[in-house]
Amino acid sequence: MNPWPFVIGAYGVTLGGAGVLALLSYLAMVRAEK
Question: Where are the membrane-spanning stretches (predicted)?
Fold first, then answer.
C-alpha cells in the first residue's frame, strides 16, 4: 500500500489549516488596529 497519498494529504491539511489560521489572525489584527 502506497503511503504517499496520505503523506501529501496530511501536509495539505496542515498547511491549509496554518494558512487559514494566519489569515484569521491577520484579519483580527487589522480589526483591532482600527
Answer: 6-29
Handedness of CA 22, 24, 29, 33 (dihedral sign): positive
Per-residue model confidence as pLDDT tens digits over 4-13 = 999 999 999 9
Dihedral angle at the C-alpha atoms of 3, 19, 21, 25, nearest 10 degrees? 160
What is the C-alpha separation between 14 and 33, in angstroms, rounded? Answer: 29
* Residues in the chain, total: 34
